[in-house]
């Protein structure tokens, strides 16, 4: 009788742990911010689609260029200020101190002991997939425009590489911020100059 009671206790604990594990997995797999997840991909994918189909849709290069740059600028702002913070708990920005010196700040959200602030695995996959894949596509477009002598498209394609590459660089710095001492001073300097130029380009395009 004693042995049977012990066995029943072990079985109850095992089932309880299994249910708790299933519940935890379902929470991690759930998309908590569907609107942010949608717009994280919408602007950048739309810019790529417009670039691929613009010559079929209209003969006006100016209309295509303005539409693509507007989409890229909206994407830069949304990813930098909204989707990164909500989907993966990361953000980066520039601030000027009292001496007038510019500083780049890279932050990652701290995870609580209960794990209540952890990001959803589904949202994290969507965020990083869109963040990494789209700049690579614009790099391919850049080489394609260069080798096919489509000089008029180079400015648009370079804008896509710069704006989306800036967000990729910023969020990678947020992700590996604890190991930033592994990067050289030259790399940090070039990255900061790159982000400064991109921020100005993004603000100018949006205005």
Automatic annotation (TrEMBL):
Location of this chain's protein in the cell: Membrane
GO CC, alphabetical: Golgi membrane
InterPro entries on file: TVP23-like
Gene Ontology terms: biological process: protein secretion; vesicle-mediated transport
Pfam family, one: DUF846
Membrane topology: Multi-pass membrane protein
Regions crossing the membrane: 34-53, 59-79, 126-147, 153-172
Keyword Acyltransferase: no
Keywords, in A-Z order: Membrane, Transmembrane, Transmembrane helix
Protein family per UniProt: Belongs to the TVP23 family.
PANTHER family per the UniProt record, alphabetical: GOLGI APPARATUS MEMBRANE PROTEIN TVP23, GOLGI APPARATUS MEMBRANE PROTEIN TVP23 HOMOLOG B
Protein name listed in UniProt: Golgi apparatus membrane protein TVP23 homolog
The encoding gene: Tvp23b
């Amino acid at each position: 009788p004693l042995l049977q009671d012990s066995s029943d206790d072990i079985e109850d604990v095992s089932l309880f742990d299994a249910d708790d594990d299933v519940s935890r997995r379902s929470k991690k797999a759930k998309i908590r911010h569907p609107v942010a997840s949608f717009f994280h991909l919408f602007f950048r994918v739309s810019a790529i689609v417009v670039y691929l189909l613009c010559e079929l849709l209209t003969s006006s290069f100016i209309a295509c260029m303005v539409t693509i740059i507007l989409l890229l600028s909206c994407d830069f702002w949304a990813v930098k200020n909204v989707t990164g913070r909500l989907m993966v708990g990361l953000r980066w920005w520039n601030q000027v101190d009292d001496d007038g010196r510019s500083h780049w700040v890279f932050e990652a959200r701290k995870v609580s002991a209960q794990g209540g602030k952890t990001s959803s695995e589904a949202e994290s996959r969507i965020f990083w997939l869109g963040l990494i894949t789209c700049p690579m596509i614009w790099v391919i477009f850049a080489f394609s425009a260069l080798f096919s002598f489509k000089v008029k498209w180079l400015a648009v394609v370079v804008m896509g590489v710069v704006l989306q590459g800036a967000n990729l660089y910023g969020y990678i710095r947020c992700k590996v911020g604890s190991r930033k001492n592994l990067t050289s001073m030259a790399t940090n300097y070039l990255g900061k100059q790159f982000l400064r130029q991109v921020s100005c380009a993004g603000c100018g395009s949006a205005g």
